[in-house]
Amino acid sequence: MTLSAGVSGRGDIPPGAIESLRAGGLVIYPTDTLYGMGVDPRSPGALARLFRVKGREEGKPLPLLLADGRRVGAWAACTPGAATRLMAGFWPGALTIVLPAAAGLPPGVTGGGDTVGLRIPAHPVARALAAAAGGAITGTSANRSGEPGLWQDADEMLAEFSGEADWLLWDGPVASVSPSTVVAVSASDNVTFIREGAIPFSTITEFLKRGT
C-alpha cells in the first residue's frame, strides 16, 4: 500500500491514487469524520473487493460520498422537500441522507434494497476523490466490520491493510470520534432518524421545525 501524507488543503491527490481508483483499486482517505474506504461504486469488481477487505456482510448497503450536490440525481430517484432543506442546512457536513434509489443502481451499493445513503463531506480530499471516480465514492468507514475505526497513527493503518488497500491518503488522526448522523427521507417526505452521530438528532429536529 502506498502512503501519501499531508493531503489536505485544496484536496490535491497523487495521480497514482486517482489512476488506481479508476482501475478498480481501493483507497483509504480522510473525511470530516472517520477515514473512509473508497472504491468506484459503479464497479462490481471493486465493490466485491471492498466487501472482502472490510469483512462486510453481503446485503448491507454502502453509503456514498458525493463531489457536489449536482450528483444527487444520478443516485436518488427523487429529492423530497425535507431532504432538500437538510442538504442546504447540513451539506457539506456529517449528515448522511437516505433517499429512494434511482433505478439500476448496483446491488452492492443498495444492499439489494430500494434506498441509497448520500452525503457531501466537509473535506476537500473526499470530495476530490469522489469527483475523480465520476462524482461519487463509497464512504464506508476504514475498519474491519465490527471493529473501531478511530485511527490515530498511519503506521497502524498501514499494518492493518497492507496488501489489501492500494493507497492510504493520510491527513492525521481521525477528525471526529463519531461517524456521520443518518436520517432517511421517504418519497412522501417523512423523516426517519436512523443513527445519531456527529450531528445530534435534536439539532436536526430543531432545524426541521424552523421550516414548518
Characterization of the model:
With 212 residues, this protein is α/β, with parallel strands linked by helices. It has one domain (2-210): DHBP synthase. 30% of the residues lie in helices and 20% in strands. It has 8 helices and 11 strands. The strands form 2 sheets. The protein has a 6-stranded mixed beta sheet, with helices on both faces. A 5-stranded mixed beta sheet has the order 1-9-2-3-8, with helices on both faces. 42% of the residues are buried.
Supply the CATH class.
Answer: Alpha Beta
Structural class: alpha/beta
Beta-strand residue percentage? 15-25%
Number of separate structural domains = 1
| Unreliable parts | none
Q: Within the largest sheet, what's the order of strands? A: 7-4-6-5-10-11
CATH architecture: Alpha-Beta Complex
Tell how many strands the DSSP assignment holds: 11
Element pattern in H and E: EHEEHEHHEHEHEEHEEEH
Write the CATH fold name: DHBP synthase
Give the end-to-end Cα distance, rounded to a whole number of Å. Answer: 50 Å
Largest sheet: 6 strands, mixed
Oligomer category: single chain
Radius of gyration: 16 Å
Judging from the principal axes of the Cα atoms, what is the shape?
A: globular
CATH superfamily: DHBP synthase
Mean pLDDT value: 93
Question: What descriptors fit this protein?
Answer:
11 strands; five-stranded mixed beta sheet; DHBP synthase; alpha/beta; 212 residues
